[in-house]
Amino acid sequence: MYGKRSRFLTIMLSIGLAFFYIPMILLVIYSFNYSKLVPVWSGWSIRWYEKLLFDSPDVWAAVSLSLKIAFVNATFATLLGTLAALVMVRFGRFKGRTLFGGMLVAPLVMPEVITGLSLLVLFISLKEAIGWPAERGFTTITIAHITFSMAYVAVTVQARLTGVGQTLEEAAADLGAKPFKVLTAITIPQLTPALISGWLLAFTLSLDDLVIASFVTGPGANTLPILIFSRIRLGLRPDINALATIIILFVAICVAIAAILMFRQHRRDLRDQQLAAGEDA
Amino acid sequence: MADAQSAPTTPIHDQNGSEPIVQIRGVTKKFGDVTAVENVDLDIMQGELFCLLGGSGCGKSTLLRMLAGFEFPESGSINIDGVNMSDVPAFERPTNMMFQSYALFPHMSVEKNVAFGLEQDKIAKAEIEDRVHEILKLVELEDYKKRKPQQLSGGQRQRVALARSLVKEPKLLLLDEPLAALDKKLRKQTQFELANIQEQVGVTFIVVTHDQEEAMTLSTRMAVMDKGRFIQIGTPTEIYEFPETRFVADFIGSANIMPGKVTENGADHIRVATDLGEVYVDHGHTFAEGSQIWVALRPEKIYLTTSPHETAGPNQTEGMVDDIGYLGETSLYKVRLTNGEIIDVTAPNLIRPKTRTHGITWKDKVYLRWEPSSAMLLGS
Question: Within chain B, which residues score under 70 in pLDDT?
Answer without folding.
Answer: 1-18, 356-358
